[in-house]
Amino acid sequence: MNSNKTMLSVVLTAFGLATALIQAATAAPNDAHKGSATVRLQYVYGVQQSGSPDPAHDAACKKQLSQTQSKYLGMTVKTTYSIDPQSLIMSANSSFRSPVATQPLQLNADLKPLGLADSYSFGVFRPTVLPSAYGVMFSVDLKFAEPKSTFIVFGPKDQTYNCVISSAKLPFKAAESAKFSADAK
Known about the structure:
Shape: globular
Strand order of the largest sheet: 1-3-4-5-6-7-8-9-2
Order of helices and strands: HEEHEEEEEEEH
Distance between the termini: 72 Å
Number of helices: 3
């Protein structure tokens, strides 16, 4: 009798493990949320090099980012992303027209996860595709809603401020701002 119970126990355990492995193998690819968001950069702010707001330079930044050689104002940014909320494996890529090219030129920036707890946020610092920018960021909330793109553009060389242009009225949360100021050190 004991051998029958042992055999039944082994069979049920093996069946349970096999079922769990099959579920894990088939569920993993479906857990990733893939999406895209298209937003327009329209809110401009001056910031100190530390990332703190610098409202005294808002007007200068708006002028700088809407000039012929720097067409950030009104620029459309399309970001495609893949986020697995379970494993936290994620990727994102932002695509936008070059703000400085005289001919239409589409640029792509691969963004890295920023590791923030309250949103799925991505960024790249000093992107090679956009030398006039200090950083490009994208985020969505934990429900994959409220997408926003934010660019930090270097201010004039003889000044101590930078310019932020975003699709959101509030471009940064404290944690996002900390990521940029940490890179500046």
